[in-house]
Amino acid sequence: MIDFHSHFLPGIDDGSDSVATSMAMLDCWKAQGISTICATPHFYADHNTPERFLSRRDTAFEMLREEMALKEIPIPDIRLGAEVRFFDGISRFDGLSELCLEGTDLLLLEMPFRTWTSRMIDEVGVIAATTGLMPVAAHIERYLDQPRGLLKEFLKLNIFFQSNAEFFLEQGFSRKGLKMLKKGVITFLGSDAHNMGHRPVNLGPALEVISRSLGDRFITELEQRQYDILDQFRTDDFF
């Protein structure tokens, strides 16, 4: 299974604070049987540029690679990307394609936590319709308190939606998450892991909940669908 959303690169955002923490997080993914990990540090256009962000991201990744090489630990299947915070004019932003998950045209997009407007939703639709990129809305469960009409409009967009593992683990929310997953609203899953404490690697436990409720076959089919989408939006041979 793919963990589509994480913050384990050391020292680049509010995620992992050190190489040691990153290494411990990678051990958790391995123990949970997660085969592919997408590193998606936060990108905020109001205080960063794609060039500066990519340089910092590559530096953080290289620090991790060096530590793993030093300890003779095989490097897992890590894909670099970004979690891009929505901002006005994002559909016209130069360099947006550079922030996609490497090897694909998939863009992990974090929507505002304030009340949305139809204009915001329209702009996300413009990205999908005119730029050649495909938005993947991060942690869709965090937006369920948006006005019903706006949320319905958003879910009708021709884009993909990612859910965090906690949606299936928190009491009172699991049933809603399972329903959205079964209906195909949710396509990608992620831990959104930041550390070894209150934001841990927890995709494995979420998959156990999903498997108990929807069956192992559903998990297999979901995984295949994810890889089919990665292949559909592939720009090179990463996947």
What does this structure look like?
39% of the residues lie in helices and 13% in strands. With 239 residues, it is of the alpha/beta class. It has a single domain, classed as Alpha-Beta Barrel (TIM Barrel). A six-stranded parallel sheet has the order 3-5-6-7-8-9. Strands 1-2-4 form a three-stranded parallel sheet, with no helix packed on it. Helix 5 (174-182) links the parallel strand 8 and strand 9. Helix 6 crosses helix 7.
Distance N terminus to C terminus? 13 Å
Strand order of the largest sheet: 3-5-6-7-8-9
- Name the helicity range: 25-40%
What would CATH call the homologous superfamily?
Metal-dependent hydrolases
Portion in strands: 5-15%
Low-confidence stretches: none
| Principal-axes shape call | globular
- Tally of alpha and pi helices: 7
Radius of gyration over all CA atoms, rounded: 17 Å
CATH architecture call:
Alpha-Beta Barrel
The quaternary structure here is single chain
What integer is the average pLDDT?
A: 96
Task: Count the beta strands.
Answer: 9
Main beta sheet, described?
Answer: 6 strands, parallel
